[in-house]
Amino acid sequence: MYKIAAIGDQESVLAFEAFGLLAVPCDSPQAAAKAMRKIADECAVIFLTEQLAAQMPAEIAKYEERVTPAVILIPSVKGSLGIGMNAISSAVERAVGVNVFADSEDA
């Protein structure tokens, strides 16, 4: 059975344990990349804070074409950098051919 994990700073990921997810506190992109490699085969979804993701694009790219794990970027307790929403918007646009998240002013 696949697991769901959350990787990020301790304050951002510990709450995920309350929902039965694997929380993996990491304080550097190197530690986060190592953790991702370690748990990738046993996880269906890995939530990763945007702050760490911004510092490790090459590591995240390794998982883009894989079915599992799906790497989902989330804001940390420090706030959003917007890269998670941009990634979802881009994936949806590739899938359906139109940016469904665009404001009417952007269209």
- Give the overall pLDDT as a whole number: 85
User: Per CATH, what is the topology?
Assistant: Rossmann fold
- Order of adjacent strands in the largest pleated sheet: 2-1-3-4
Low-confidence stretches: none
- Rg value: 14 Å
The run of helices and strands is EHEHEHHEH
Write the CATH homologous superfamily. ATPase, V1 complex, subunit F
State the distance separating the first and last CA atoms: 42 Å
Helices, by number, come to: 5
CATH class: Alpha Beta
Tally of structural domains: 1
Can you tell me the CATH architecture?
3-Layer(aba) Sandwich
Q: Label the overall shape.
A: globular
Secondary structure: helix percent = 25-40%
Structural class: alpha/beta
- Give a short account of the largest sheet: 4 strands, parallel
Beta-strand share of residues: 15-25%
| Number of distinct beta strands | 4
Explain what you see:
It is a single chain. A four-stranded parallel sheet has the order 2-1-3-4. The model has no long low-confidence stretch (mean pLDDT 85). It is α/β, with parallel strands linked by helices and 107 residues long. The protein has one domain: Rossmann fold, CATH 3.40.50.
Topology:
Elements lengths: L2 E6 L1 H4 L8 E4 L3 H11 L3 E7 H4 L3 H5 L8 E5 L8 H14 L11
Parallel strand pairs: 1-2, 1-3, 3-4
Give structural attributes:
globular, 4-stranded parallel β-sheet, 5 helices, alpha/beta
Question: Could you give a short description of this structure?
Answer:
With 107 residues, this protein is an alpha/beta fold. The protein has 5 helices and 4 strands, in the order βαβαβααβα.
